Structures are given as structure tokens and as C-alpha cells.
Amino acid sequence: MTLHRTDMSENSERRMAAEPAAPGFDSLDYVTVMIGDQILGLPIGRVHDVFITNRITLVPRAPSEIIGLLNLRGRIVTAICLRRRLGRPVTPRQDREGKTELVAVGIDHEGEAYALIVDAVGEVMRLDQSTFEPVPVHLDRSWTALATGVHRLDDRLLVVLDVDALLAIELDAAA
Q1: Of residues 76, 67, 89, the one with CA closest to residue 142
Q2: pLDDT band at 94 (very low <50, low <70, confident <90, very high)
Q3: Measured between alpha carbons, how far is 27 from 59 in angstroms, rounded to an integer?
Q4: Which of 42, 82, 147, 172 has the fewest CB atoms within 10 Å, i.e. the most exposed one?
Q5: Over the chain, what is the mean pLDDT?
């Protein structure tokens, strides 16, 4: 996983450099992201980059979750708004110069590059597999199809996202 030093602090870089658990260990590693006050977990093995961008090319007639395309080191990346994907209202953040600032988590899926646009990126969490539970029946319906389960933390739930389900966007809506 790569963290762009120009966009994040050195302390963040150390947190993101944590190694996945060795085979045979009973732990699960996640890169945590925030959507509002909700902490979400992305399996660390699926995350390749964490970066900040403000240059998105809009794609006419794309599904609403796809906010555009960006160029990441010469590679075209599809930017997906995780807020929209989870059915939450979008509130753009702006930097000091008034440009919209987007925090993104880079993911490769079936040979294509994607950027999940999130509110914030947290730390890497290593959690014991024994704390993993199936998706609760009371979880928001729009989230249940996009989650694989939850971990109970001391003061809240970490919802573990299913990356494959997140990226399965109905493209026929754009036709």
C-alpha cells in the first residue's frame, strides 16, 4: 500500500504502514475510513493508496455514485463517492483556496483502478477474529448489501465493507 507523502502527515504514514497479519493468526486488519460519525473498515489487502485530490473529470450520464475520473500517476481511476453509495447526503469539503478537496482510498478490482471518496481516513486496525459478527438485522438496509459484518469496539461498531459489492454499480442506469 502506498501513501502519498505530500498529502498526509508523517504520523499518518507510519500508521498506514502496518503490515497485515501473518497467515495462521486470528486477526483481521482494516484500513478505517469515516463517513460522518460512522467508522467503516476496508480489508487492508484491498487498499493500495490513500491520497487527497481536487482534480476530477466529470463523466456525463454516469451513475450518481461515480463522481468522475482522475489521473493517478498516469493511470485513469474511477472515483466513487462512498457517501452516495451508502445513501448519505453529500457535503463537499473545500481547502483554503476554495477548491473541493477529496480524500480517497485507492483500490484495484478486476484490473481496474478505483478511488473510494471518503470523509476521512483513520488508522489501520488489527482486530481479533473472535470479535467479528455477522451483519446485524437492524443495520440500515442500504448498508446490509454492502457490508460483510461488524466488529464491536469499546464505544461503537466498525462496519466492515464488502469491496466487491461496493464496486458493483449498476452501469445500465448510464445508458
Answers
A1: 89
A2: low
A3: 40
A4: 172
A5: 81
